[in-house]
Amino acid sequence: MTQITAGAVKALRDRTGAGMMDCKRALIEAEGDAERAVDLLRKAGAAKAAKRVARDVSEGTIRIATRDGSASMVEVLSETDFVVRSEAFEAFATELAERLFDVPLGDGQILEGEALLGLDAASGGGSEIEDRLNELRVQVGENVRVGRAVRYDLGEGGAFASYVHFGSRIGVLIEISQSSEEAVETARGIAMHAAATNPSGLSPEDIPADVVERERALLTEQALEQGKPPSITEKIVEGRMRKFFEENALLWQSYVRDPDLKVRDLLSGAGGDLAVRRFARFEVGG
Prior knowledge:
Elements: H1 6-16, H2 20-29, H3 34-52, E1 59-67, E2 70-78, H4 81-84, H5 87-99, E3 111-112, H6 113-121, H7 128-140, E4 144-153, E5 159-164, E6 170-176, H8 181-197, H9 209-225, H10 230-248, E7 254-255, E8 258-262, H11 263-270, E9 276-283
Antiparallel strand pairs: 1-2, 2-4, 3-4, 5-6, 6-9, 7-8
């Protein structure tokens, strides 16, 4: 029987992140061959990871990265906050945000985790994200899942601003039309605002049509139940819809740092026709 040294076990553990006893068993089965032991651990890890994928995930983190005129944001989920705060989980989330720059993800396209894994596998580089995900599941002993992911490619003359809320459970990524330091600082404030208010769209036109129609139908029903005539009902509904847009469209919202200002007024006051081109907001589990 091949003698397995403590040093060999530790080296394999450092390389794979697997438990000491798992590494020792793999080395014994591989008769001391480290490369074969790695393969055995990967196979065993895939089996263990498969058993964990059905578990619910309610904790997680948001990561944002930038590179060469692009910005990415990703949500990574796990079962417990303890794992979220682990070094291995944080490293994976950071690596994944960077990996989005190498995956053929469409500009502005928001993908759920399974779709992202499929896109990564079809990109010609193998299933790099899924392999790392399975390794992490084995290492931390929990189900870990990729939630949503988005990448923005910067338009001409623009800039990115972002904000990740304390605890990394909410992240906002914004593209603006100017790149000056003042413009980016203004946009960062708007990103913080969006983290707090959770707008449904940039303007009323950007709010999903089904959401708008459902709200309009509800308000119309409420007005009719009050016995108002149709002509009055229409005016009441329009007034309440305006209130709905002021609560849900980013540019129409009252700015949290100065409620007397609308966000669109803040942009106008910044000068130079500063505009928010688009934004994305992720909240863990949201």
